[in-house]
Amino acid sequence: MKENLLQQDKLTWTHYSEDEDHPFPVSYWGTILDIDDAGHISALYRWDPGQFCHFHRHVCATTSLVLEGELHVKTIENGEVVDTTIRRVGDYAKKPPGDVHMEQGGPDGALLLFELYAPDGQLTEQLDQDGNTLRTLTTDDLRRFFNKQQAAA
Predict the structure, then answer these.
(1) CATH number of the domain that 18 lies in?
(2) 15-27 as b/e, with b when 16 or more CB fall inside 10 Å?
């Protein structure tokens, strides 16, 4: 596969959002670049300016690289933001499973490359404000999406 990740108009994006009753404004986009049978996933995510992704916990190893903008990573405990780390263009992060957080796009939004490794197929748990699991995202979920994305291309 050969892609220029900064030529985003050639990629198929899925938009994620929440209704206005959600405690944080959620608006972000994702596209899967590759997924294999061993559990390796490459994906791009972008955040609209000042918008969040869902509150979640990674249950697999992740690495990420900020390609554009800046990302504000918010650690939340008991429904309150307790820490914020600002990651800028070029910042690389490698995290083990268990990382609980929410990301927010900076003033100009953010674009990140994510590499995930989930040999057991478990990727992330979307959480409610109290940290309870609402749903678990798996490699099978992403593979179904990836296959639809490839068929539409």
Answers:
(1) 2.60.120.10
(2) eeeeeeeeebebb
In which domain, by residue range, is 54 found? 13-145
Q: Give domain status of residue 90, yes or no.
A: yes
Match 């990573």 to its residue by tokens: 73
Strand partners, 85: 73
pLDDT digits (tens, 9 = 90+) for 113-152: 999 999 999 999 998 878 889 999 999 988 887 777 667 6
Q: What is the length of the chain?
A: 153
Q: Is residue 82 part of a domain?
A: yes
Which phi and psi angles does 152 have, rounded to 5°?
A: -80, -20
Question: Is 81 a domain residue?
Answer: yes
105 lies in a domain? Answer: yes
Q: Across the chain, which distance is largest between two alpha carbons, in Å?
A: 43
Which residues on neighbouring strands pair with residue 32, listed in sequence order? Answer: 43
